[in-house]
TrEMBL record:
Subcellular localization(s) per the UniProt record: Cytoplasm
Pfam families documented for this protein: SpoU_methylase
Protein name as annotated: tRNA (cytidine/uridine-2'-O-)-methyltransferase TrmJ
Catalytic activity: uridine(32) in tRNA + S-adenosyl-L-methionine = 2'-O-methyluridine(32) in tRNA + S-adenosyl-L-homocysteine + H(+); cytidine(32) in tRNA + S-adenosyl-L-methionine = 2'-O-methylcytidine(32) in tRNA + S-adenosyl-L-homocysteine + H(+)
PANTHER family, A to Z: TRNA/RRNA METHYLTRANSFERASE, TRNA_RRNA METHYLTRANSFERASE SPOU TYPE DOMAIN-CONTAINING PROTEIN
GO CC terms: cytosol
This protein's encoding gene: trmJ
Transmembrane segments: none
CDD domains xref list: SpoU-like_TrmJ
Subunit structure: Homodimer.
Species in which this protein is naturally found: Roseospirillum parvum
Length: 252
């Protein structure tokens, strides 16, 4: 009997991404790609102008087809957010509305608290050309502003989604393993390093680098410290032995 294919892990609870009147299928596709990068899967489209399952959107999604297939269309923004308990709106223009302001990083914490409490949340993103209208922003509890160059804050749709999604994933998608890949070669022992030091010091003395009797002990300690900090593997020590050996041949 063939082994069963392991089931994909359940997606973590996450905020919905609501695109209001997206104009181009390609932009919906690249948004889906940005969402999938950040563990977001609930895509809601308000009056999309083009088919979000068409060839252009699928090609732009670059493998994030599942997000597109799961997307739902709504006739109005109010309908798209009707089941949500907390809604944030992304805009660089405050439109003279008195609403709390937050950054994507702060919003990730806020949304995380809402979702952890068992409630639903979402983020509104406006049309490519003009952004969210007043009536759309009025539906939001707070406004997300991305702290960017005040002289130029223009972002395309997928960029805006990626910025918000990235902060969400950094706050709630971990833990992340930032350790470098394990080497096939074991770490060098102190004996390995000592042999390398002696080999190198012999050559440095022969070429005159350690000519100063007074400075020689300190210079040797400094060289030792360089290699001690490097965390060398056995293979790397062998390579350094070979380099030192070849440098001697080059002087002949």
């Amino acid at each position: 009997m063939a082994p069963e294919t392991p089931a994909e892990p359940e997606p973590m609870p996450a905020p919905a991404v609501i695109l209001v009147q997206p104009q181009l299928a390609e932009n919906v596709g690249t948004t889906a790609r940005a969402m999938h990068n950040c563990g977001l899967g609930d895509l809601r489209l308000v009056e999309p102008r083009e088919d979000w399952l068409g060839d252009k959107a699928v090609a732009a999604a670059s493998g994030a087809d599942a997000v597109l297939r799961a997307a739902r269309a709504y006739p109005t923004t109010a309908a798209a957010v009707a089941d949500l308990h907390r809604v944030l709106a992304t805009t660089a223009r405050r439109r003279d509305m008195v609403k709390p302001l937050t950054t994507p990083r702060q919003a990730a914490q806020t949304l995380g608290g809402v979702i952890a409490a068992g409630h639903r949340a979402g983020v509104l993103f406006g049309p490519e050309r003009a952004g969210l209208g007043n009536d759309d922003v009025a539906l939001a509890d707070a406004i997300i502003e991305v702290p960017l160059n005040p002289a130029y804050r223009s972002l395309n749709l997928a960029q805006a989604v990626l910025l918000v999604g990235y902060e969400w994933f950094q706050a709630h998608g971990g833990p992340f393993d930032m350790a470098p890949p394990a080497s096939d070669s074991p770490p060098a022992t102190q004996a390995d390093l000592d042999n390398l030091h002696h080999h190198l010091f012999r050559e440095l003395e022969d070429c005159g680098f350690l000519r100063s009797e007074e400075k020689r002990p300190g210079m040797k300690r400094n060289i030792r410290n360089i290699f001690q900090r490097a965390g060398l593997s056995v293979q790397e020590v062998r390579t350094l032995h070979g380099i030192v050996k070849e440098l001697r041949h080059g002087r002949r």
